Amino acid sequence: MESVTILLAEDETLLLLDFEDVLKEAGFVVLAVTSGKKAVEYLKAAESSIAGIVTDIRFAESPSGWDVARFAREIDPEMPVVYISGDSAPDWASQGVPKSIMIEKPFVMSQLIVAISQLLNDRTAGAAALE
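The structure corresponding to this sequence follows.
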């Protein structure tokens, strides 16, 4: 099986470690960062190897998770994006990228795996339909 790399951006270290562990246990390769700025740097450096993004919305500094997702979609218009947030869910309709998923904190860890897997599967199914 081909490895699938997920970019994970979360500024709360304990949550970052929990999310990273769950994603790794599900078989993903995880690039974990603690800021939107680092996430954008990873996207620029490793754009072709990142299959999907899981991002918090609010970081101590700009850019926000909304901005990270928009930047990722400039690189890859079909990039799967899962937002995780404790307080920004109401803004998802106006700020989120199309075909993304919002998970509100707190949540059951399996929701994270289901969300990113669903988006990755939808992308694969769409690509297969085009062939």
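The chain has one domain: 5-130.
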